[in-house]
Design goal:
The chain has about 425 residues and is an alpha/beta fold. It has helices spanning about 15-20, 30-40, 60-75, 80, 90-105, 115-130, 135-155, 165-175, 190-200, 215-225, 235-240, 255-265, 300-310, 310-365, 370-395, 400-410, and strands at about 5-10, 40-45, 50-55, 85-90, 185, 205-210, 225-230, 245, 270-275, 290-295. The protein contains 16 helices and 10 strands. Helix 5 (about 90-105) packs across helix 14 and helix 15 packs antiparallel against helix 16 (about 400-410).
Length: about 425
């Protein structure tokens, strides 16, 4: 089944465009149902650095046109404009891209660990929405396994560098020593918590968590060793902080320039704000307020590039592994498509073997148990050798062509028919 992926990421799209196509957890189920009706099998991966739509189809030209229309609608661009920023990968290139994304090779922070969890979440969401079928499910389960092997073999993510930790480096460069600095964390998701923990390790002082839900916010604050307030009190909380980290899943700006100006009053103290959300939580005009330094995701690129250069060798090793994994995945997918006819072929051959064996044994009188065992083993070996070439043909040839040819040759039932027979274990298809 040919694969197709189209999307935008931090490399080829502006923050404004990424904000337009960003999909939060609340909107994702409805979007998946809509796309499933338009495209068929669909999975959406939306993170702070990318939004991608994966699908499958026998006619890739039609699927590509539909997919471009979907991205055009999401971005608000014409199809001609969308084509200048949307990347499309088909077939093996789509498989390779899925693995590269999952292992962190395509991330802003090369080898970062959060992306594997985000892929798992996207796969689970597609499964719950009923928009994913066997091919895409197998692709992303394979990509997750490949990602684990790549990390173990290359050490590409050994330092556990993340977008959050790079953001903290920017904060430190701007504010100097973090000792006893007051930190306000807006949002209680994983990205924000990672940044807060990093700041804590670097000596930051009091932490206050801002959230929508009292019970969850209090729990996260206790986990991080800080205080908490509800989002309704965000304005007053801004008046008593040195560092703000915001990383929510809100669909609109939470912190405006007027809020910050009112909170600061006549203060001349420095305030550093780090916006890790997509779409943005903090209005861009906040960065123009005297004494306020605002960093967003695009500002992380320079530091990320420094670390990328340090991981060149590991990345090259990872690419080699991926080059070998793409054909391995295709073989596994072909095996999936041909397994029903292999089972049917095995059952058909076993039925003939047993019938002829019983006929022969009835004509041979006085055989010992050992002789019967030798004859039984001999018939199994003959069947195994006869089936070896057809099974190899099925597993390594064009699935539809191979299935049809073998089915017709041996007079097998429709391969889509449910079969109870198990594959014959002794068949050697080398």
């Amino acid at each position: 089944m040919p694969f197709l992926v189209a999307g935008l990421n931090y490399r080829n799209a502006s923050t404004e465009l990424l904000e337009r196509v960003s999909v939060n957890d609340r909107a994702l189920p409805d979007l998946l149902l809509k796309l499933q009706q338009q495209l068929g099998e669909t999975l959406v991966l939306s993170t702070c650095n990318r939004t991608e739509v994966y699908t499958t189809g026998d006619d890739l030209d039609v699927a590509r046109t539909q997919l471009m229309q979907v991205l055009s609608d999401m971005t608000g661009l014409s199809e001609e404009q969308a084509e200048t920023v949307v990347y499309v990968h088909e077939g093996d290139d789509a498989v390779r891209h899925a693995i590269r994304v999952t292992c962190g090779l395509d991330s802003m922070v090369i080898g970062e660990h959060q992306i594997a969890g985000q892929v798992q979440t996207a796969l689970r969401a597609a499964g719950e929405a009923g928009s994913v079928d066997t091919p895409l499910s197998r692709l992303f389960h394979f990509a997750l396994r490949s990602s684990r092997r790549i990390r173990e073999a290359t050490g590409i993510g050994r330092s556990r560098l993340t977008v959050s930790s790079i953001g903290v480096q920017l904060v430190e460069r701007a504010i100097g020593s973090l000792n006893e600095r007051r930190v306000l964390l807006v949002g209680a998701g994983e990205t924000g918590k990672l940044a807060a923990r990093t700041l804590g390790r670097m000596g930051a002082g009091n932490l206050t968590v801002v959230g929508r839900n009292a019970e969850r916010t209090e729990r996260i604050a206790n986990e991080l060793g800080g205080d908490w307030v509800l989002r309704a009190d965000l304005g007053s909380a801004l008046a008593n902080t040195d560092v703000v980290i915001s990383a929510t899943a809100a669909s609109e700006v939470l912190i405006t320039a007027d809020m910050v100006k009112e909170a600061r009053g006549d203060s001349t103290e420095s305030l550093v704000m780090l916006d890790l959300a997509m779409p943005r939580d903090i209005d861009a005009s906040v960065g123009e307020i005297p004494g306020v330094t605002l960093y967003g995701l695009p500002d992380l690129q320079a530091i990320a590039d420094e670390h990328r250069a340090e991981r060149t060798d590991a990345a090259a090793e990872a690419e080699t592994i991926i080059d070998n994994d793409v054909p391995r995945f295709n073989e596994s997918l072909t095996a999936l498509a041909t397994e029903p006819v292999i089972r049917a072929l095995g059952a058909h051959a076993e039925e003939i073997r047993l019938r002829e064996l019983q006929n022969g044994l009835r004509r041979l009188q006085g055989l010992t148990d050992e002789q019967r065992s030798i004859i039984e083993s001999l018939t199994k070996s003959v069947v195994s050798k006869i089936l070896a070439d057809p099974i190899t043909f099925l597993r390594h040839g064009d699935d539809d062509e191979a299935v049809n040819a073998v089915s017709r040759l041996f007079g097998l039932p429709n391969p889509d028919t449910e079969l109870d027979a198990e594959p014959i274990e002794h068949v050697d298809d080398r």
